[in-house]
Write a structure and sequence with these properties.
mainly beta, 2 helices, 16 strands, about 5% helix
Length: about 270
């Protein structure tokens, strides 16, 4: 089985998208966002060596889809932080991303440049080629969308961007769920998810598997505490998403004899 690891960016409550009525069964939970996370190597070089890097967006929903083609996860990226979306990263298949009438079963993450409508820069959903490993994209509720930083305008050492996630069900024209605008900086991550691990945030999971994570105190003070988000891709329904709080206690030194304020002791 496989596990992928992210820095948690957002959690959402299970909520209906306005319709159906509360008395009806909610058929859109397969597109209702539960959690969003990101993983990256946390380094961008001025000489545009970030072309060799990858940013991994992890999105979990509240119920399973039968096929990734049942839902659409759109990640709108404001790469220059000017308040306007510049790129859209979305899930599709190797045929359907460029066709309104055909679909296939080879699933990819695709980038669209919104100013031009140009579509390209495809990478495999869940990172790994289906010819190399089964990442359990069918009957699942977790998905990883990888993208190269330079494909979304992060070049010349530019490492920070804004983004939001918007989801659709094929059975509903309006969005099912959307996140607020979120911020991420590849250079200032709290958690080094590649600290002693594989070059990708997805790895084999066996009993006793350990994931080593580096922790940056300075970035944590700046960003606030961030939890770990794990996707257990081959677990059964309802057991694929795990959120682990990361807590750090500053070291404290106590020197004796202990000197206290006498007025406080007499209260």
């Amino acid at each position: 089985s496989l596990v992928s690891v992210f820095e948690l960016q957002f959690e959402s409550l299970n909520a209906r998208p306005g319709t159906p009525a509360q008395s009806q069964v909610d058929i859109f939970d397969h597109a209702d966002i539960r959690a969003v996370g990101i993983a990256s190597h946390g380094r961008v070089e001025p000489d545009n060596a970030n072309a060799q890097e990858t940013i991994y967006f992890g999105v979990a929903t509240y119920a399973d889809w039968a096929s990734p083609n049942e839902i659409e996860i759109n990640i709108y990226i404001d790469s220059n932080r000017d308040g306007a979306d510049d790129y859209r990263l979305f899930n599709s298949d190797a045929i359907g991303y460029d066709s309104a009438s055909e679909t296939g079963d080879g699933f990819v993450a695709v980038v669209e440049e919104l100013a031009t409508g140009d579509v390209g820069a495809r990478q495999f959903l869940n990172i790994v080629s289906p010819g190399d490993a089964d990442t359990a994209l069918f009957n699942s509720n977790v998905m990883v969308l990888p993208v190269a930083p330079d494909a979304i305008g992060l070049a010349d050492g530019h490492s920070s961007f804004l983004y939001r996630v918007e989801t659709y069900s094929r059975a509903r024209r309006e969005p099912v769920d959307t996140t607020p605008t979120l911020a991420y900086d590849m250079r200032r991550v709290n958690l080094d998810l590649f600290h002693g691990n594989s070059a990708m945030p997805i790895m084999e999971e066996r009993p006793g598997t350990a994931i080593t994570v580096g922790y940056n105190l300075q970035n944590a003070q700046r960003n606030g505490e961030r939890a770990l988000l794990l996707f257990h891709h081959h677990n059964q329904s309802g057991q694929r998403v795990e959120i682990i709080a990361v807590r750090y206690a500053w070291p404290v030194e106590i020197f004796v004899p202990l000197v206290t304020n006498a007025r406080n002791e007499n209260r």
